Automatic annotation (TrEMBL):
GO CC, alphabetical: cytosol; membrane
Subcellular compartments: Cytoplasm
Designated gene of the protein: infC
The protein's assembly and partners: Monomer.
Keyword tRNA-binding attached: no
PROSITE patterns attached to this UniProt entry: IF3
Protein's UniProt name: Translation initiation factor IF-3
Keywords: Cytoplasm, Initiation factor, Protein biosynthesis
Translation initiation factor 3 N-terminal domain location: 1-52
Length: 144
C-alpha cells in the first residue's frame, strides 16, 4: 500500500521490481493499480473462473416411462429412481404411455400420475400438470 502515486512513478517502481503495473479497478476514483506479474494474474483469474464453472450444477431432466397398468413392484422401482433423481437435484419427467385400447382408459393413467405426485409430494413440486400429448400423458416434477 503506497497510496496515490503518479503513473510515471508507478511505472518506474514496477520496472525496478521486474513486474508489471496492472490496473485492478479502472472505475474507482482514482483508478486502483497493483504491481505484480501479469501472467500470474491472468492465470489465477482463469483458474478462479474454471472453479466457478465446475461448481455450477447443470439441471437435467430425467425421464421415467410407465404404462397405466403398472405392477406394484415395478411402480416401487420407478419411485426409487424418481426419488434418487430428485435428491440429485434433477427434474423428473413422468411419461405415461398408452398402447392400443388403453387410450379408452386414460383415467387409469391419470390415477397413476396422481399417485406419483402424492408419493413424491414431500420432496418435489409439480412443474407441469399431467397433460395428454398424442398417446402419452406427461407430468414434470422439480425438486423443492
Amino acid at each position: 500500500m503506497v497510496g496515490v502515486v503518479s503513473i510515471r512513478d508507478a511505472l518506474i517502481a514496477a520496472e525496478e521490481a521486474g513486474l508489471d503495473l496492472v490496473e485492478v479497478s479502472p472505475n474507482a476514483d482514482p483508478p486502483v493499480c497493483k504491481i505484480l506479474d501479469y501472467g500470474k494474474f491472468k492465470y489465477e483469474a482463469q483458474k478462479r473462473a474454471n472453479e466457478a464453472r465446475k461448481k455450477q450444477k447443470i439441471i437435467e431432466v430425467k425421464e421415467i416411462k410407465m404404462r397405466p397398468n403398472i405392477d406394484d413392484n415395478d411402480y416401487d422401482v420407478k419411485m426409487r429412481s424418481a426419488r434418487r433423481f430428485l435428491e440429485e437435484g434433477d427434474k423428473v419427467k413422468v411419461t405415461m404411455r398408452f398402447r392400443g385400447r388403453e387410450m379408452a382408459h386414460q383415467d387409469l393413467g391419470m390415477n397413476v400420475l396422481v399417485k406419483v405426485r402424492d408419493d413424491l409430494l414431500e420432496m418435489a413440486k409439480v412443474e407441469q400438470m399431467p397433460k395428454l400429448e398424442g398417446r402419452q400423458m406427461i407430468m414434470v416434477l422439480a425438486p423443492k
